[in-house]
Amino acid sequence: MPLNLQKFNKKMNKFIIIVLIVVGFSSCSEYQKAFKSEDLGVKFDEATKQYEKGKFTKAIRLFEQIAPSYRGKPQAEKMFYMFSQSYYKTKQYYLSGYQFESFAAGYPKSDKIEEASYLGAKSYSTLCPVYSLDQTDTDKAIEKLQAFIDAYPNSTYLSEANGLVKGLREKLEKKAYLNAYGYNKISDYKSAIIAFDNFIVDYPGTPFKEKALFYKFDSAYQLAINSITTKMQDRLNLAKTAYSNLVKFNASSEYKKEADEMLARIDTDLKQFSK
């Protein structure tokens, strides 16, 4: 490469760098001016620029300044939509859920109402904890997603919304099963039987049904063989019923061998009451 061309390229690179720095400082300066300005219009315009550039955190700082005074203004609908989206894009889901709900309530005729209703419900679904923790937020998310599904049965978001509900319900299902199983493991057999009964009624199609039926049987068995004589016979018969429900559900259950051994003990113990 000729020496003059190399020098020219170096100068051009320096020029481009300088221009970028100047533009950057100018952009920062405009943002700072808007942030300190008392003019709501200036703040709105700069917040919109930041939003469109994907600078959602900066946009949020300006939206937070103007939101209390912006309701009822001609551009309020656009502003609150961008505000909600900015929280969503920065994964502040409590805030995006609240803002999208407020948007949907405040602008029911907006062409963004369906999207806002869905993203508001979806925001709550992202807050749901792992199945081992309290599931209050999961219940809330299911309620909001179901409300969206009922309101927009032909929505383009319907498939995704149904998928989210399915996943959240599976989380509740697993939580309920582990709750019942936990009673069995700490030898609180009465509570385990009740919890497994409730679980089977609440989740009839659960993939945990065989496990639930076996551990209900195990709980009934343990309760029976460790009972005082006056309560043993009734409890042994209840355990036999639990066994029957297990093998009726799956005659080839993976628990069949263990269950049969337990049944033999039950039958042996019951003989004392037939004399």
Q: How would you describe this structure to a colleague?
A:
The chain is an all-alpha fold and 275 residues long. The protein is built from twelve helices and no strands. The radius of gyration is 32 Å and the shape is rod-shaped. The N and C termini lie far apart (111 Å). The model is unreliable at 15-26 (pLDDT under 50).
Terminus-to-terminus distance: 111 Å
Oligomer: single chain
**Strand and helix order:** HHHHHHHHHHHH
| Overall pLDDT metric | 88
Poorly predicted tracts of residues: 15-26
**Main β sheet profile:** none
- The number of helical runs is 12
- Shape call: rod-shaped
Tally the beta strands.
Answer: 0
- Beta-strand percentage range: under 5%
Q: Radius of gyration from the CA trace?
A: 32 Å
Q: Structural class of the secondary structure composition? A: mainly alpha
Give the proportion of residues in helices. Answer: over 70%
Briefly characterize the structure:
Helices cover 78% and strands 0% of the residues. The chain has helices at residues 3-36, 40-52, 56-70, 76-89, 93-106, 113-125, 136-151, 158-185, 189-202, 209-225, 229-249, 256-270.
Summary keywords:
275 residues, mainly alpha, rod-shaped
Topology summary:
Elements: H1 3-36, H2 40-52, H3 56-70, H4 76-89, H5 93-106, H6 113-125, H7 136-151, H8 158-185, H9 189-202, H10 209-225, H11 229-249, H12 256-270
Helix pairs in contact: 1-2, 2-3, 3-4, 4-5, 5-6, 6-7, 7-8, 8-9, 8-10, 9-10, 10-11, 10-12, 11-12
